Amino acid sequence: MELDKIDKKLLSLLQIDTKQTTKELSLLLNLSVTAVYERIKKMERLGIIQQYVALLNRSKINKGFVVFCHVKLVQHTREYISDFESEVVKLHEVLECFHVSGDYDYILKICVGNMEEYREFMITKLTTLNHIGSTHSSFMIGEVKNTTVFELA
Question: Are 96 and 106 in contact (CB under 8 A)?
């Protein structure tokens, strides 16, 4: 589906605040409430809008210690990759996992309360997964940019 200017503006508005009513959106877009509703429903059906979520403040829920853990598997077989991926998605401390090129095979974004929690996570969960050859951890010092908003040109 090719997005028109109104679709892009609607998506921009929803990315900033999804709690806006269709009436509020219709006023901002100069459209009827029904037209806004239909556009949203169409983008949901097409999978452009995947879900609606509440973004939480990590610090307020004791998950402010952010770690980027690089993982290297012992081999790059389909079985090892599949096994690792099916297990890592079960770890609730891992918020994001990317299969990447380069020296390591995966980059994990892990959020816990502090260094002790991270150590416990590494010892009892991550390093118990099959096929991990090595890991390398980097700890967030400060957050420069964190957004979920896509710019739609």
Answer: no
